[in-house]
Amino acid sequence: MPASATLGLAPTDTFILSAQQRSVMRIREWTDILDDVTDRERGSDDWRAIAGDRSGSVGEDMYLGHPQAGVFVLKTYAKNPYEVRGVGTQVARNLDDEIGSFMPTADSGGRFAIQSPPEDEDHAETVSKRLATVLETHADAPTRPQDLFDDVMEAIESPAFGPMAYDQYDRPDELDELADRFEEADELLDAELDDLVETDEVDRGFM
């Protein structure tokens, strides 16, 4: 993989988007969704993600969650080695406990990050020095891999990073749970991505 208003769900609610919620949900290019995810006004280290094969078709699904930013879903596929195509949307405006239960915890082994390029040469030099300091500090003391990762991401000013559950050969069960809870969004995004695949005249994603 290249690289949501809460739905106000109670235990007795059905997981169906109302007409008002459908009007809020906008299907957009997957890169536009990443622009929302990388908004620097939000805590960059509070993100969680889960990803895996798309159910029954080409590509991958990815859910990204943040306590304040919400929950986003992306459906993408690699058209060729240089181009990823996809769509996405925001499905909830915050990450509640129920939806969060399907996301990995801070102690999970996997990690993801989104990287932004330095603004200029001076910024690149500042980031480089900060990164060197972090690596020296961790080299001199016992550390966990996830702690090193988090400190490196802070040093390079990653706008979004955190724990991630990912299966490159299959589909985590939690993805199906999330798809069930946001069923209408999942179906609409599947249809949009299928249209892209058909338009591109590609029978399968590039591996």
* Structural class computed from helices and strand pairing: alpha+beta
Beta-strand proportion: 15-25%
Percentage of residues assigned to helices: 25-40%
The overall number of domains is 2
- Residue-averaged pLDDT, rounded? 80
Give the total of beta strands.
7
State the separation between the terminal residues, measured CA to CA: 10 Å
Order of helices and strands: HEHEEEEHEHHEHH
Return residue spans where pLDDT drops below 50 for at least 5 consecutive residues: 1-23
Task: Specify Rg, calculated over alpha carbons.
Answer: 18 Å
- What's the total helix number? 7
What's the gist of this structure?
The chain is α+β, with helices and mostly antiparallel strands and 207 residues long. The protein has two domains: 160 residues, no CATH class; 41 residues. It has seven helices and seven strands; from the N terminus they run H-E-H-E-E-E-E-H-E-H-H-E-H-H.
What does this structure look like?
The protein is α+β, with helices and mostly antiparallel strands and 207 residues long. It folds into 2 domains: 1-114 and 162-207, no CATH class; 117-157. Helix content is 36%, strand content 23%. It has 7 helices and 7 strands. It has a 7-stranded mixed sheet with strand order 1-5-4-3-2-7-6, with helices on both faces.
